[in-house]
Design a protein that fits this description.
Number of strands: 11
Distance between the termini: 101 Å
Strand order of the largest sheet: 8-7-6-10-9-11
Radius of gyration: 29 Å
Number of helices: 11
Strand content: 15-25%
Shape: elongated
Largest sheet: 6 strands, parallel
Structural class: alpha/beta
Order of helices and strands: HEHHEEHEHEEHEHHEHEEHEH
Helix content: 25-40%
Length: 339
Amino acid sequence: RRCVAVRGVVAVVMVGAIHCVQLSFVGLAWGWQNTRVVAAHRYLGVCCRSLFPGRVAEIPKTSSAYRQLQLLFKRQGRVQAQRFIAEGAKFLSMCPRTIFVRKSRWLQSSDRIEELLAAGGEEGPAALAAAAPLLWGPKSLRDDGGVTDPPGIGVLADEVFDDITTQEASQGVICVFPMPEQQGMRTWATGKRAVVLDAVQDSVNIGVILRTMEAFEADTLISLKGTTDLYNPKVVRCSMGAVVRGGLKLLVAKDAAQLKQMLRGYKVFATSLSGDLQPQDLVNHLSGRDAFVFGNEARGVSKEVLDVADAKLRIRIAPQVDSLNVGVSVGIVLHAIGG
């Protein structure tokens, strides 16, 4: 009798254990399935917690939105669309009109991305400027050119995003901003000081120059023929937000004659190996509206542009050094004349 009783107890315990295990697996399966559903809803931007419901869309490589994004990596495409791109999470707080996110990044940190977009705080005057509408295709990416609609969010498959980014170690975020209205238009320099670039081609240098100008309150940058497009993605990224904030006036002069017109009322200083002035002497020669011309490191400022200058400026360097980095040169001059 004792043996039978013990066997009965063991049987009951074993059945209970098996039932508990079954319930555990069911719970795990339900939890896993529920996680997938929440992730899918989050991905599609329809979760009740989403700050931008209805503004998220998956963008395949064959879509019109992807083709339009490709065009923004080229100068002609940027001019036609009146948009430019900035790669990196830093630009999420600068009020982009549209963003594209690597899918794995979106699934991992969509909450944080939406928080940065909603908070803003690092934008400049360009954020409030109206722009021409841009047709992406999907309704969720609608950009009518105004500033009232929340940004559209396009999610790209990892391999699709990696094909289009210009960064080797991308942060998985591409932001799209409107170009200021003066881009491509013939207009004039404004502010107390301007910088002119004559055939400067290195994107990193130009980005550094823009950042330096913002730091030392130079208001206008004029680029001459042969200079890399000021809205090139690498230029924008290296400017650390100077281009996006829109506080700098970015102009293009087709030749020396047009440059002279744009700088009407300015005293023009051009850097040259034959210059008489040095940076420390500039404070005694400033007019209150002054422009500083820099050429590329190999050839310097062209003769045609030198002829426009009122004075020539020389930065002394050791005799064994052929030239000075143009970004460093701009920093030396702008620092010498003070804020």
